[in-house]
Amino acid sequence: RYTDTVTDATEQQIQQAADDSIPTVWPLFWSFRIMVGCGFIMLFVFGAAFLQTYRKNITQKPWLLKAALWSIPLPWVAIEAGWFVAEYGRQPWA
């Protein structure tokens, strides 16, 4: 990519090749945190719903029902963020 013959590579070409082999970190950083954050939110909503169902007063907690409704797409978001972490984390080697 930088030179046809490796033995003829200049210092600048070697440095450029080394810099290009390091993946960008911020997409992985934020995708991982989105994935973990979605998981913890789902865990909290499920735990609260289970506790209120066990106490038999889940219908008296409209905030919990709204939170359960709004958390429906969270598994998909967590899966997509996890997939991004898995695929982007392999680059540029895959």
List its salient traits.
rod-shaped; mainly alpha; 94 residues
**How large a portion of the residues is in β-strands, by DSSP E?**
under 5%
Strand segment tally: 0
Rounded radius of gyration (Å):
23 Å
Alpha plus pi helix count: 4
Amino- and carboxy-terminal Cα gap: 16 Å
Low-confidence stretches: none
Please state the average pLDDT score. Answer: 90
Shape: rod-shaped
The H-and-E topology, N to C, reads as: HHHH
Please state the oligomeric state of the protein chains shown. Answer: single chain
Q: What level of helicity do the residues show?
A: 55-70%
Main beta sheet? none
Q: What structural class should be given to the helix and strand makeup?
A: mainly alpha
Description:
The protein has 94 residues and is an all-alpha fold. The chain has a domain at 24-88. The protein is built from 4 helices and no strands. Helix 2 (26-54) packs antiparallel against helix 3 and helix 2 runs antiparallel to helix 4 (74-88). It is found in: Cell inner membrane. This is Cytochrome bd-I ubiquinol oxidase subunit CydA. It is a multi-pass membrane protein. It comes from Vibrio lentus. InterPro entries: Cyt-d_ubiquinol_oxidase_su_1.
Quick recap of the structure?
The chain is mostly helical and 94 residues long. The chain has a domain at 24-88.
Describe the secondary-structure layout.
Elements: H1 11-20, H2 26-54, H3 62-70, H4 74-88
Helix pairs in contact: 2-3, 2-4
